[in-house]
Amino acid sequence: MLVKQISVFLENKSGRLAEVTRVLAESNVDISALSIADTTDFGILRLIVNDPETAEKTLKDNGFTVSCCDVIAVSVPDKPGGLAKVLSVLETESIDIEYMYAFVGKAENEALVIFRLDNPEKAVEMLEKAGVKVLSSDKVYKL
Amino acid sequence: MLTIRGVNVFPSQIESVLLEFGDTAPHYLLIVDRIDNLDVLEIWVEMNQQLFSDQVKKIEDSEKKIRKAIEETLGINAAVKLVEPKTIERSEGKAKRVIDKRKF
């Protein structure tokens, strides 16, 4: 159920993001979702791609600092209170969210949310018990 | 050797501090400037696998740890900036590790 997310260290200067996307394009890696955490000096680019192993390897070969970690992808109904339901499960189980970001999936009436949590295995179990749709990694990579 | 605010600083001291933060000491560059009659030291350190994380707070923690270790060893405050790997110039032969912008 856990999805691999690639994180890349980017210095805050022009052309760095373009370089990452160029490298990924050349190795035929498709990006499904991305988010950037930015500070004054640097940014962290987080990517969900169709082929995390290739992405990690090619980025490393091109001199980027890359790390890979586990996140979960949750399908949330696109209506008021959709996300609130998911978050209340995490709150009840006191699972901390390090960060999260949403992206629009191809399926209608649902939004996809990526969560970076301190205890992803437990989160998956609890969310599924509460009837929340957690997407399998295969499905996410194909988006 | 550099003299920053009256404190003698050897780049090798900084190198030995940085050894704690990587399998090999990360490449670094010292930038010294004088702002409002005070010497300021900025240390650029190349990012490595050990310092990197997908979380901003952990990277900022690493920066703080380096700054603290430098302060404890040298007794001076330095700003630490993490830069991308291989962005600090490699020179053949003697490494150029200091840029001194001060005008005396």
UniProtKB/TrEMBL annotation, chain A:
<dbReference type="Pfam" id="PF19571">
    <property type="entry name" value="ACT_8"/>
</dbReference>
<dbReference type="InterPro" id="IPR045865">
    <property type="entry name" value="ACT-like_dom_sf"/>
</dbReference>
<protein>
    <submittedName>
        <fullName>Amino acid-binding ACT</fullName>
    </submittedName>
</protein>
<feature type="domain" description="ACT">
    <location>
        <begin position="71"/>
        <end position="143"/>
    </location>
</feature>
<dbReference type="InterPro" id="IPR045739">
    <property type="entry name" value="ACT_dom_pair"/>
</dbReference>
<dbReference type="InterPro" id="IPR002912">
    <property type="entry name" value="ACT_dom"/>
</dbReference>
UniProtKB/TrEMBL annotation, chain B:
<dbReference type="InterPro" id="IPR051414">
    <property type="entry name" value="Adenylate-forming_Reductase"/>
</dbReference>
<dbReference type="InterPro" id="IPR045851">
    <property type="entry name" value="AMP-bd_C_sf"/>
</dbReference>
<keyword id="KW-0436">Ligase</keyword>
<dbReference type="InterPro" id="IPR028154">
    <property type="entry name" value="AMP-dep_Lig_C"/>
</dbReference>
<keyword id="KW-0596">Phosphopantetheine</keyword>
<feature type="domain" description="AMP-dependent ligase C-terminal">
    <location>
        <begin position="6"/>
        <end position="102"/>
    </location>
</feature>
<dbReference type="GO" id="GO:0016874">
    <property type="term" value="F:ligase activity"/>
</dbReference>
<keyword id="KW-0597">Phosphoprotein</keyword>
<protein>
    <submittedName>
        <fullName>Phenylacetate-coenzyme A ligase</fullName>
    </submittedName>
</protein>
<dbReference type="Pfam" id="PF14535">
    <property type="entry name" value="AMP-binding_C_2"/>
</dbReference>
